[in-house]
Amino acid sequence: MHDWQKLVRQKLEGIALQHDDAAQVVEELAAHLEEDYQYSLAAGAPEQLAIRHALQHVTDWHDLKSKIESSRKKELPMNKRVSQFWFPAFLTILLSMTFLMVIQEIGPKPWTSSAGGPAWGALRAPGFRVRMMPVAMVYLSWLLTLPFIGALGAYLATRAGGRPAAVFSSVAFPVFPYLAFFIIGLPIAAILDDHVAHNIMLPAFFIGFGAWVLLPAIALLAGGLPVHYFSGRKVST
Amino acid sequence: MIASAIKRGTAEVAVLSVFEYGALHGYEIARRIERQTKGSLRFTLAAFYPLLYRLEKQKWIRGAWETSPTGRRRRDRLTPAGKKKLTPLRSEWSELFAALHRLAGVANA
Q: Do the beta carbons of residue A190 and residue A196 sit within 8 Å?
């Protein structure tokens, strides 16, 4: 006899329903699969074929889980999007910006790249106007807070039954404004503003991108990925 | 096979209709629909159970758990509100099919 309850429970792990509600769903779906399996066996099908036939009733377990959540929950689909993406996303961005402001206000001071000596900073050559060379400011203490913020965002989005794309987008949401600046704002500034020295655009882009997009994204995901993975594995039925 | 968009619209009336035979559990409902439509209407679990739960939420069907030697199963039955809903639903669909027959000659196809 095949253990359909175990299979369904595994496939619907983390379903965003009350404990009793989730247990009933598992029981009902397992009974459906069991009956189909028994029907095939009674019709003379070998066991493996009967199992395969029963499993043909589910083409996408994630889709099944998500549709059952929306049909059993007493909330509107819009609220589901809010709980799976917008709420965790705004919470992560709010917390990360608040921490950054506090750190900028009261310290500790950021790590500033000074490699290259006088080449980094303002240069005044005779006959030339002032040129600013790119300086990287990395708020290490801020970066250290980001894994916790990412973990919180991932926990909330996963608990609400968010798909991986929604979970990771909400975790990485605090870097989106910086990302938009580097891929849209900076190129536009380079084209429209003649005060921006074009010869420093590429190093500025890479330094800024690393300090404000890449490192924070890595820090956020370092906290968010394990939380999503482990809370997704938790049996909720 | 019938296209999935059309199936979605007809699923509600199909499920409500089979409850006229009395209280049924999920697998029986799905099998009955499949048999009576000669396999044209066949549901995946992702289409069938959410529909069943929505009908229950709308209070058109009501489920009760029962214990049998093979385990616990939930049987659903049509509520008075569901019965009331089924009559106009059927006539709406009959009207639609009659209109399609007249329009496209589906009956003679």
A: yes
Same domain, A160 and A229: yes
Chain A hits for B27, CB-CB cut-off 8 Å, are: 31-32, 35-36
The residue among A42, A59, A76 that closes a domain is A59
* Structural domain count, chain A: 2
The answer to whether A161 touches A66, Cβ cutoff 8 Å, is yes
pLDDT digits (tens, 9 = 90+) for A50-97: 999 988 888 889 889 988 988 887 655 556 778 888 889 999 999 999
Cβ contact, residue pair A70, B57, below 8 Å: no
The ipTM value here is: 0.82
The answer to whether the CB of A14 falls within 8 A of the CB of A158 is yes
Q: Are the beta carbons of A66 and B46 closer than 8 angstroms? A: no
Structure tokens at A11: 């496939």
In a domain, A79, yes or no: no
Of B43, B49, B51, the CB nearest to A29: B49
Looking at CA atoms only, how far is residue A68 from chain B in angstroms? 5
Structural domain boundaries, residue A229: 85-236
Whether residues A180 and A109 fall in one domain: yes
A118 with A166, same domain: the answer is: yes
Quick: pLDDT tens for A105-138: 887 888 776 544 444 444 455 555 555 556 677 7
Residues B67 and B74: their CA atoms lie apart, in Å, by: 9
Chain B positions touching chain A (beta carbons under 8 Å): 25-27, 30-31, 43-47, 49-51, 53-54, 57, 65, 70-74
Chain A nearest C-alpha distance from B102 (Å): 36
Catalogue the long-range contacts made by A37-45 (C-beta closer than 8 Å, 24 or more residues apart). Answer: A37/A2, A37/A4, A39/B31
Asked whether residue A199 is domain-assigned, the answer is yes
Q: Is residue A53 part of a domain?
A: yes
> Within a domain: residue A140?
yes
Could you tell me if A112 and A184 lie in one domain? yes
pTM of the model: 0.51
Same domain, A54 and A108: no
